[in-house]
Amino acid sequence: MDTEEKINYLDEPLLRYINRVYSKTPVPGGGSVVACVSSLSSALVGMVLNYTIGKDRYAAYEKELKDIFTENEAVLKKLSEYIERDSEVYEKIRRYTSKKDYISVEKYLKESAGLHLDICRTTLKIIEFAEVLTEKGNKGLISDTGIAASLAISVFISAKISVLVNVMYIKEDRDFVEKLLEEIREIEKNVIKKGKIVCDKVIKQLEGDNG
Questions:
Q1: Which top CATH class is 9-210?
Q2: Does pTM surpass 0.85?
Q3: What is the pLDDT, as a whole number, of residue 6?
Q4: Are 28 and 117 in contact (CB under 8 A)?
């Protein structure tokens, strides 16, 4: 029976979470930080939408933007939960490794890899949301749109690293590993291509405003 105290990073002040990361403790580590930054990327998309929906200037896009808002809310909720879940899974990996229970270790390695694969998937969604916002979002927040997209690119790379470090230790289910890596390769093509398009659009608009 699992009696360990549940981590509640989201209920703590931000400074405490930062200090937890900084301290000489195994959690929260890189995986949790990836989830945290991914949730901030999604949150920026939400902020731009909040400043766009309901304004007469963008009324023609209202339905599309409300649909994105709803989808992004679900993304943000899931990513925020991953901030703690990553640490919980990592603690289980450590515990079962110390017990030499390698069947359980592999189970949680796969869960961790799957979690970060899902973060990779959401980065593409966030970039696609940002792409719409470069054209239909509040122009006063174009820099926030660009930052959301650039963070999503960075998050993809970071989540990919988290996936790779987990699958390196998965010895039995190599089919799982190959399918996972194949999906990441496909996502990566779109993240890099679409992410660059969005960032270039934002930079071009900002350079035009300052030219």
A1: mainly alpha
A2: yes
A3: 65
A4: no
